[in-house]
Amino acid sequence: MIEQHLEYTECYVAFLDILGFEQIVRESERNPDVLRRLVLMLNEAANIAPPEKWVRDLGTGESKQWRMQVRSFSDSIVLFVPTESQMIASVLETVRFLYDCLLEMDCCLRGAVTIGNMYWHDMWSADAGRDSTKASADAVGERVVYERFSKSDLPITLGPGLVEAYRLESCRAKHPRIIVSNALYEHIKRVEREDPVKRVPASPLCSPDPHNSDLWITDFLREDSDSLRFLDILHPRLDRHYVIRQTISRTDDGKTIRRNVFNNQSREEWLSSLREFIARHLGSSSDVPIRGKYLWFAGYLNACLAAENVKLAGLQPISLGLPAE
After folding, report:
1. What is the tens place of the pLDDT at every residue in 54-109?
2. How far apart are CA 168 and CA 17, in angstroms?
3. Integer Cα distance of 152 and 123 in angstroms
4. Phi, psi values for residue 80, rounded to 5°
5. What SS3 class is residue 115?
6. pTM for the complete prediction?
């Protein structure tokens, strides 16, 4: 057995849960279309490209490349990356992207994002292990390919940070929202404000355009009526101009051409489709707890529509009817 020094690493951690998953699975036994939608949904979560980022140490001048870890099982999705990566905006943007994907598939996402210790292996960093892997493959002579209890870079998911994120999601989130822990909120405020040189930009939550230079990450965190803060997925300056399809081709002279197709849906179109989604589920649900989740969502959307009543005059608030018990 190879002895290794193991310790936890402080990370940003998100735990996400697909709401209504049990009912969807039951329906998938009877309806092939539901099964197809379920498979597409889980494939989207499992195949998301993990964001990467280069971070330069201002003291040593050395740079390191980080890659966010994305793990999914059944109805749960976990994201985590060391805080040293300064990738909190990327974590929140990935959560927002997954939230949008689930809405497109007629489902809601609920979750929590926090800061806490996780097991992290250096091989998971984007720049780690490339040369050593090649050297191992090219080596001449005997080499160890298996030794019991020696493998530590497998994609395991472990740590107090995950336990806390799960607790917040299951006990506090309640509605289809992504709550942010107080510890993470205070951390974000600190890294945003204490040193302008080290300021972590709000991009990619918003586009990196100069007109967004006044935005902080905390601008995208909204305080709810129960005093919990959550990711404001309806914020008007979120960047939803993401790639939905990519093709690669080669020219006759051997050059590679990469073409991207972007999501060009307007904000008005997106909010209109969201309004239809919420109203439809409110109209078809008689279960009090489930209805309560969509009533919350309707109230959240109505508040955003009221704040943008000039630009979105064609969209009417959703009638809430009787409040949830």
Report:
1. 777 667 777 788 889 999 888 899 999 999 998 999 999 999 999 998 898 888 99
2. 11
3. 9
4. -160, 150
5. strand
6. 0.82
